[in-house]
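Its record is quoted verbatim for completeness.
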Amino acid sequence: MNIALWIVQGLLALMFIVTGSMKAFQFEKAKAKLPWIKDSLRGLVTFIGVSEVLGGVGLILPLAIGVAPSLTPIAAIALAVVMLLGAGFHAKRQEYKGAGMNIIFIALAVFVALGRF
């Protein structure tokens, strides 16, 4: 179970750090790739990106270095909340593919949270 948790944590962390970095630090590139960004405020997109980067780091670092390992499941829960809000946003815009991806990430984040609590 521990190996499965580490694999899921690693994949989630990679995804959140890469996409979050693009949203936080490469706004124009993100705007070109993600259609919903065109209709959103730049500050909101940057906030979401920074939250995703910090959450991605929080999925790995605390448990890996053994300092405050209880932050790992908290990071997973926080990312699940971000994805839940994102799913609602995409569903409201009738972007069901985006909402479906959010639901997959919610399930993975909840798996990590439950496995690490």
Remarks:
- The CA atoms of residues 54 and 82 lie 12 Å apart.
- Residues 2-116 form one domain.
- The radius of gyration is 14 Å.
